[in-house]
Design a protein that fits this description.
Strand content of chain A: 15-25%
Helix content of chain A: 25-40%
Number of helices of chain B: 11
CATH class of chain A: Alpha Beta
Radius of gyration of chain A: 18 Å
Largest sheet of chain A: 6 strands, mixed
Number of domains of chain A: 1
Family (chain B): Belongs to the ABC-2 integral membrane protein family.
Mean pLDDT of chain A: 85
Distance between the termini of chain A: 26 Å
GO molecular function (chain B): ABC-type transporter activity
Order of helices and strands of chain B: HHHHHHHHHHH
Radius of gyration of chain B: 21 Å
Shape of chain B: globular
Number of strands of chain A: 10
Oligomer: heterodimer
Largest sheet of chain B: none
Subcellular location (chain B): Cell inner membrane; Membrane
CATH superfamily of chain A: P-loop containing nucleotide triphosphate hydrolases
Domain ABC transmembrane type-2 (chain B): 37-268
Keywords (chain B): Cell membrane, Membrane, Transmembrane, Transmembrane helix, Transport
């Protein structure tokens, strides 16, 4: 069983939007952030459309993880506005966060608890009762091939298994927007392909919106919406073909090189 | 593609708040049970004071009849409430240490991206730590009973609300302190500046009239130390009485520490030095 077999997320009616107006799954408007005197983000604006796969591409240090921390409210906004399906994360954080599933770059599982206990804890944090949590967790664990490890401590899992568990955990409360920050770090080639494939199916089959941050070109497809972030600024956004046309280049590599003035070093492509 | 037009509830029901509280307390209890050495060390510390220190000082420090006691008591009996408070003091600091650790290791992110209000999540974390400290105190009392520390039976019940309040106060203090700590490595120094002064400048080991005889200045320091009032609140409650002044001080201090901790808590502290998500910025 692979990550590609993860259950479809489905859309929780409790997390559905309040109106039928077409609102962006994620809207980022004029966001800037500084660590003291050091500027990490400057006037960042872009949107993730509902049921789309948006890749946020940038080298290490581009500001991707700072942006993730702002979207998840780990950092407070210094300027600008972020909303999830129309709910502002500053004025309506509860409504915004209940629609968001997150996989952080570092592991955030509790190593001393079992696989099932980690999922149940996450469910409790979203106000999901024990019975319902157990049912959803059983289903997810079966699909990712960890049903027989439900009672094992997380520290006994492999790195790939932990990442699969984190994806399953992020889906447990049935979010409409999934945010994955460099989720394939530490995975082998097959596990990485399985993971990306599954996440893409969540978009096409279930209408989940995805923001995928990465520094790897080969995780991006021609049909994706793309945002290029470099030194805290959005240099380009849109379809790859459009970005290539706008920059007068052929393909993503050349466009990226021209926009950033750097050779991409992180590619597995 | 536009978003589906479904109606949804806003906010959370009381049941969902309760589920969240249960989940956090349950996780804290599980972690405590898994860390057996933490449980043992939490008991060994006060027991060493009771079995060794108190035995040595029994003949040196005479205790006159002071409320809530109605007769002469052994020194071991006198310091028991202080040791109960000491357990909660260490637990409160250890809980905040755990928050700093969780913040560095990433587990705290799981808690903080919950859609429930952040003040509520932190309060739940505090309540969970308090519940664990009360378990430790009762385990200590059970062992102390074999050492002839036998408060009235009703005292085991009447002391419970006092322990809940003092546990909250000391946990909130720990949370307030942890809010100002950027790195796990800084915590030991802060502990030394908080735990030892609070414990020794209090009525935990000696009655304040004794302190007054030795140093009037220290006496006033002890009077202003909220830990003194935590000890006295527990002492009176263990004998079925209420020390109203201590109750007011502990209640007020709990509110002040709690508000301070909520206002000061900044999840980005400790994350920034390694980047927002542990690897980069």
């Amino acid at each position: 069983m692979t990550v590609a077999d993860l259950p479809r997320a489905g859309i929780d009616s409790a997390a559905a939007p309040r109106s039928s107006a077409a609102v962006a799954a994620l809207s980022i408007e004029g966001v800037s952030y500084s660590y003291g005197a050091r500027r990490a983000l400057h006037d960042v604006s872009f949107a993730v459309q509902p049921a789309s796969f948006t890749a946020l591409l940038g080298l290490n240090g581009a500001g991707k993880s700072t942006l993730v921390a702002l979207i998840t409210r780990l950092f407070g906004l210094q300027s600008g506005r972020i909303s999830i399906f129309g709910d502002d994360i500053a004025s309506a954080p509860g409504e915004a966060l209940r629609q968001l599933g997150v996989v952080f770059q570092p592991r955030t599982l509790d190593l001393d608890l079992s696989v099932m206990q980690n999922l149940q804890y996450h469910a409790a944090l979203h106000g999901i009762g024990r019975g319902e949590a157990r049912s959803r967790a059983d289903q997810l664990l079966t699909r990712i091939g960890l049903a027989d490890r439900a009672g094992n401590k997380v520290r006994d899992l492999s790195g790939g298994q932990m990442r699969r568990l984190e994806i399953a955990r992020a889906l447990l409360h049935r979010p409409r927007l999934l945010l994955l920050d460099e989720a394939t770090v530490g995975l082998d080639v097959k596990a990485r392909a399985d993971l990306i494939g599954h996440v893409r199916r969540l978009v096409t089959d279930d209408g989940v919106s995805v923001l995928w941050t990465t520094h790897l070109f080969d995780e991006i497809e021609a049909s994706d919406d793309l945002v290029i972030l470099h030194h805290g600024e959005v240099l380009a956004r849109g379809a790859i073909a459009k970005i290539a046309t706008d920059t007068g280049t052929e393909g993503l590599h050349a466009a990226f090189r021209q926009l950033t003035g750097t050779d991409h070093l992180g590619g597995a492509s | 593609m536009s978003a589906p037009a479904l109606e949804r509830p806003t906010g959370f029901t009381p049941a969902q708040y309760l589920i969240c509280l249960n989940g956090i307390v349950w996780r804290e209890a599980l972690r405590f049970l898994h860390q057996r050495e933490r449980f043992v060390s939490a008991l060994v510390r006060p027991l060493v004071w009771l079995f060794i220190f108190a035995a040595g000082f029994r003949q040196v420090l005479g205790i006159s009849i002071i409320p809530p006691y109605e007769t002469y008591i052994l020194y071991e009996v006198y310091i028991t409430p202080g040791l109960m408070a000491m357990i909660q003091l260490f637990n409160g600091m250890q809980s905040s240490l755990s928050m700093v650790y969780d913040r560095e290791m990433g587990n705290m992110r799981t808690l903080l991206v919950s859609p429930l209000p952040r003040w509520y999540l932190l309060s739940c974390k505090l309540l969970a730590g308090t519940a664990v400290s009360i378990l430790q105190v009762y385990a200590f009392l059970a062992i102390a009973w074999f050492w002839d520390i036998e408060p009235p039976h009703i005292g085991y019940l009447t002391v419970l609300p006092a322990l809940a309040l003092t546990g909250l106060m000391l946990g909130a203090l720990g949370m307030l302190i942890s809010s100002g700590i950027k790195q796990l490595e800084n915590f030991a120094g802060v502990m030394n500046f908080v735990i030892f002064p609070m414990f020794f400048a209090s009525s935990a080991l000696y009655p304040l009239w004794r302190v007054l005889e030795g140093s009037p200045a220290l006496y006033y320091v002890c009077q202003f130390n909220p830990f003194t009032h935590a000890v006295e609140l527990i002492r009176f409650a263990l004998y079925g009485q209420i020390n109203w002044i201590s109750l007011a001080v502990v209640g007020g201090s709990t509110a002040a520490f709690l508000i301070g901790a909520m206002l000061a808590y900044n999840p980005s502290r400790g994350l920034g030095r390694r980047g927002a998500a542990g690897g980069e910025t």
